[in-house]
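Pilot study result, target chain (301 residues):
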Amino acid sequence: MRVRNGSCLLLPVFLVLSLALLAGCRTVASVGAELGTQAGVLDARQAESLRQTGELAERSMEDFTPEQEYFIGRAVAARVLEDYAVHDDPAAQAYLNNLGGVLALHSERPSLYQGYSFRLLDSDELNAFATPGGHIFITRGMARLAETEDELAAILAHEIAHVQERHGLQAIRSSRVTAALTSAALTGAHLAGDDDLRELTDIFEDSIDDITRTLFVNGYSREFEREADAGAVAILERTGYRPEALTRVLERMDDEWDPQGPGFARTHPSPSRRIAELGLEPADSRSEARAERFSRFRAAL
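Predicted structure:
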C-alpha cells in the first residue's frame, strides 16, 4: 500500500515519541524530535517542545522542592492512617523515633524539610511503609519479627533507604510530574497550613494515588527493593549495627511468606531472593545483641 508525504514513517515516529514520553529520557526525546522533523510529522516548534519535555521529565525528580516532597508524603501518610491506627504506647513511639533518627543521620539524606518521623502502627500484619519526605511506618507485627535492636534497625534502615532514593516520587507517572511542577499554585509557595495541604492534595491527587497504589498494591520494582536493601546495609554499617541483621529478619519473613497473604507478601519480592542478592552471611541474633541495646529494645517493645 502506498502512503504519500512520508507518512509511511508516521507509526515508527510516534512509537519513538511515545517511548520518549514514557521513559522521560532526554536522549530518546531528541531522537524522536529529529525523526519527526525529517518525516514532516513535526514542525520546528513541535520538535523543540518535545526536546524540552524530555529534559523536564529527566529532571523531574530533582525539581521537587523539599517542601513539595514533604507534603506529598504527608498526604500519602494520611492514606496510610485511614487503614491503620497508631499504636497507643508513647514509650515505644519515642524509642522508635530515637532509633530511626540515629539511622537517618547516617543515611545519604540525613536532613529533610521537616525531618524524619517514625510511627508504630497497631496491627499484627507484617508490614512497613515509607512515603516521600520521611514519613515511615512499621506495624507491631513487623516490629515483633525483630528479636534485637540490630534487627529492628535493619527494618527501619530499609525504609529510610527508600526515602533517600526517592522511590516514592518515582512511582508518579512522568506526565503527572510535568503537570504538577508547572502548577502556579506550587511555584514559589511556602506551604504550611491545613488549607495549603488541602490545595496540594487536590493538585497531586492522581500522583498521591500512584504512590499509594505502589505501597499497598503493586509494590516497588525488584531493582528498587535491591537498592533499598543495599542502602540499608550501608546505613547499618555507618551506624555501627550489624548488617547481617537484615538477613536474619528476611529469614523470618521467609518463614511467614505467603504470596497470596496480606501485608509485605503482596508488595515485596520473596525474602529468599533478597537474601541471595544480598549475599551476607546469616548471623546468630543472640550474638549481635549488646547488653545495653538489648535491654532498651526489650523495655520499649
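One observation from the pilot: The chain is about 60% helix and 5% strand. A full batch analysis is planned for the follow-on phase.
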